[in-house]
Amino acid sequence: MTETLTLSTPSTLEIRPRYEGSNICTWIGFKHVNYLVEEAVLNHLRQSGLLPGTVYETYGLCTDIVDIDTRILHAFHIDDVAVAEVKPHRKAKDGEILLAVTLHVQRETLLKAVTSTVRVQLRFDPRGGGEQPATAALAPYAVDKLHAAPAWKTEVPEVNLDADDLTKELTAGRNAFAWKFRIPYWYCHFTERIQMSGYLRLMEEAKDQLVASRGVSIKTLLDEQNWIPVVPHSRITVLDEARMEEDLYVVITVENVFKGFTYDSRMDTYVVRDGELLHTATGQITHGYAVIENRADWSLVPFDDRMNAALEGKQA
């Protein structure tokens, strides 16, 4: 850890997608694309003199991604090499770490495959003790609690916290699905809190649970129509902190269908703490469907009557 940070100096990184993310044929899912973005950001911080391990062990500051907004322009395959470029975002203000990430992939030419905006905060952890005061270079980025401003209006729903099934309260009158999830330690980091990758896992599961509950599960459409879901855009924003072993209520709401080719859904997560419903994260994801043409290629297809009915919460 240096006394002077060089966050304004652009960084580059070559990295392959993780093998785990190649779930259908050789294409890489949106979650693992975001993992590439995360690794590019961590590499940038290290090259800038902000090493997450050293910063935590020395100053008690936890490096956390609190907002990640990613657009996928071209699909990655498992053997691809992502060429990542990271630099300060043009809207970055003093005292904040807001980064612009671009991933390129080689095809006939070098294509821009992914663009992402990432916000990072350094959250002070009083648990360890014995840490040194933050340096003048780090102090502007230090916070006592994680929070990022949402890009859309959020409201905590009025619910009866004493109800037998809080998931029903959270979805009443809405085109939504919800479930209760106990936060395990492997979704967390720095001993205490769920991390961004944990929320990305939940966003992926939310899609899976929603369509399965409406008779159009991933496997069903693969077997019957050779369809797979594709994601051109996703965003997750941390609003407050959710802690290890708390019950997290995950709600996915279908918001709109665009010209029968894509649909937007919103994910919101809550915990009940001190007798109140606390909104810990909000996110949005856009899905379409593609038909598998062969082992290497797919193409987008319009929704059929069954899919449109499922998105509306009705029977076809």
> Oligomeric status of the shown chains?
single chain
Radius of gyration, Cα only, in angstroms? 20 Å
Unreliable stretches covering 5 or more consecutive residues: none
Residue share in helix: 10-25%
Order of helices and strands: EEEHHEEEEEHEEEHHEEEEEH
Largest sheet, if any? 12 strands, mixed
Number of helices: 6
Q: How large is the share of residues in beta strands?
A: 35-45%
Average pLDDT, rounded to a whole number, is 96
Query: What is the approximate shape?
Result: globular
The total strand number stands at 16
Q: How would you sum up this structure, described in words?
A:
- There is one protein chain.
- The protein has 316 residues and is of the alpha+beta class.
- The chain contains 6 helices and 16 strands.
- Strands 1, 4, 5, 6, 7, 8, 9, 12, 13, 14, 15 and 16 form a 12-stranded mixed sheet that branches.
- A hairpin with a 2-residue loop joins strand 14 and strand 15.
- The radius of gyration is 20 Å and the shape is globular.
- The chain starts with 10 loop residues before the first strand and ends with a helix.
- The mean pLDDT is 96.
Main attributes of the structure:
316 residues; alpha+beta; twelve-stranded mixed beta sheet; two-stranded antiparallel sheet; 6 helices
